[in-house]
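Technical annex, item 7. During the second reporting period the consortium partners agreed on a shared format for inverse folding records so that results from different sites could be compared directly. Each record opens with the tokenized structure and is followed by the designed sequence. A conforming record, contributed by the partner at site C, is shown below for reference.
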């Protein structure tokens, strides 16, 4: 079977969906190829019937007020909840509200103020700390900054580019990036918005695993395999928008999910070698009750009232050190998280993540493990590291890699256009809104080049 079309879009995550949405308003014939049996990619939302909120296995937060997402939210009239509440810390068996993040953010500003200028050689975050904050009196701030950076960026401090961090911080400041929001109804509303908007004008093929992309100026031939019955498929087009995750683009040619370019594009390989694929562990524990609000005797009402407002819990001594609730929603859900080097180690050792999560939580709250086990209604988790169509969580930029984003994003022969979070050159890589921006950019570039 061979299909002819004007534009092939590879990957129906938000980057591919946004590109398809933009192109669907033109006369072009568009075909969107997706390996999974669903759209959304690293947005992966579950809707358990016994919960009033959604469960996110991938992206959860909207970082700041990016117009790309807030326009859609406004258009759909979706409810948005700002994450607020109180941050708590568990340390040496004690649990109390703390100002960990506020302190780290202040320290981080100070640390990044020592970053080399754009014309000086780039260094890693670890090198920056070692150069200017090696003194013993900075030991606490140094450790906290590494924990924060590795957890948030899913990055290794010894590889993460300081230039890229500064670039990202500036971009984030422009969209109120210190605030964060959630869609209680689920992040999948964004993916569904695009799909509904282009429904009927884009040929969406789920369960279509792309294997090779053969290209020459003005012509693309894609071979794929049907995920359900393994039948081979061929698609032809004048141009393609490629939104594959960085982990997939970097995968060894014969590994599951990998895609081969024929001919190879050496500039892309070189660019990719400077951008890293981060790893995270995320576990959603759905309990019968909000057991943590009734741990102390009822006469200690003040404590109970405060812990009811707990949004984040930092338990740095634990294997899963970061936790959050769905505050302001009062749901019986807690999410455990680890990113960067710590997550890489646990994943490499194939550790029993659910067990670690329960142990971490029991230890942080100083309660018996069985109390938590008895409360579990369901555990939801997706292993992004093992997922052949993601091969990691999200990208971060390695030392000297800031310009590699531009190279990765650059169209090839006015025929191949690249999108996806790892091609965001505006400082918004690794985010949903950043991915949407790249899909819109690739569609715009393609329209410009095809009309010339
Ligand atoms: C655990 C986790 C938590 C996150 N938290 C946040 C957050 O809170 N806030 C935030 O803004 N961002 C977050 N992110 C990042 C965010 O999810 C991504 O940046 C964004 O969704 C990426 O969109 P994309 O379209 O670039 O890639 P993807 O969503 O990965 O889309 C690429 C698509 O290509 C498909 N594909 C792959 N291989 C093939 C193939 N061979 N053939 C055909 N199709 C293929 C995939 O199935 C996928 O659908 C998180 C990510 C993870 C994993």
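Designed sequence (site C submission):
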């Amino acid at each position: 079977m061979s299909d002819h079309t004007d534009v092939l879009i590879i990957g129906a995550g938000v980057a591919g969906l946004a590109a398809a949405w933009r192109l669907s308003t033109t006369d072009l014939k568009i075909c969107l190829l997706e390996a999974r049996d669903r759209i959304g990619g690293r947005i992966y939302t579950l809707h358990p019937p016994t919960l009033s909120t959604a469960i996110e296995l991938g992206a959860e937060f909207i970082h700041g007020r990016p117009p790309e997402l807030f326009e859609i939210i406004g258009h759909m009239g979706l409810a948005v909840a700002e994450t607020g509440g109180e941050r708590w810390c568990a340390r040496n068996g004690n649990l109390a509200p703390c100002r960990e993040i506020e302190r780290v953010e202040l320290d981080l500003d100070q640390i990044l103020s020592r970053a080399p200028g754009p014309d000086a050689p780039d260094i890693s975050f670890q090198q920056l700390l070692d150069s200017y904050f090696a003194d013993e009196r900075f030991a606490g701030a140094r450790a906290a900054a590494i924990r924060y950076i590795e957890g948030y960026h899913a990055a290794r401090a010894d590889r993460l580019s300081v230039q890229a961090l500064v670039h990202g911080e500036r971009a984030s400041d422009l969209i109120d990036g210190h605030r964060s929001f959630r869609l209680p109804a689920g992040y999948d509303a964004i993916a569904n918005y695009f799909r509904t908007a282009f429904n009927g004008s884009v040929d969406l093929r789920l369960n279509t695993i792309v294997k090779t992309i053969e290209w020459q100026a003005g012509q693309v031939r894609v071979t794929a395999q049907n995920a359900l019955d393994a039948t081979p498929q061929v698609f032809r087009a004048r141009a393609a928008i490629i939104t594959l995750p960085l982990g997939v683009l970097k995968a060894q040619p014969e590994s599951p999910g990998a895609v081969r370019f024929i001919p190879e594009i050496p500039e892309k390989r070189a660019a990719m070698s400077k951008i890293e694929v981060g790893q995270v562990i995320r576990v959603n524990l759905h309990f019968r009750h909000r057991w943590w609000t009734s741990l102390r005797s009822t006469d200690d009402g003040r404590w109970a009232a405060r812990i009811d407002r707990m949004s984040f819990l930092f338990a740095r001594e634990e294997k899963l050190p970061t936790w959050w609730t769905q505050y302001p929603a009062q749901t019986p859900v807690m999410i455990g998280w680890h990113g960067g080097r710590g997550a890489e180690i646990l994943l490499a050792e194939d550790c029993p993540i659910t067990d670690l999560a329960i142990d971490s939580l029991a230890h942080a709250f100083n309660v018996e493990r069985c109390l938590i086990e008895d409360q579990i209604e369901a555990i939801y988790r997706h292993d992004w590291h093992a997922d052949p169509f993601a091969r990691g969580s999200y990208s971060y930029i390695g030392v000297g890699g800031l310009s590699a984003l531009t190279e990765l994003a650059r169209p090839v022969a006015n025929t191949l256009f690249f999108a996806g979070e790892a091609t965001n050159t505006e400082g918004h890589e690794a985010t949903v809104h950043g991915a949407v921006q790249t899909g819109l950019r690739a569609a715009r570039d393609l329209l410009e080049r095809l009309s010339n």
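Residues 10-16, 33-36, 41-43, 58-61, 63, 209-210, 243-245, 248, 257, 259, 280, 282, 384, 389-390, 393-394, 420-421, 430-432, 435 surround flavin-adenine dinucleotide (CB under 6 Å). The two ends are 31 Å apart (CA to CA). All partners now use this format for quarterly exchanges.
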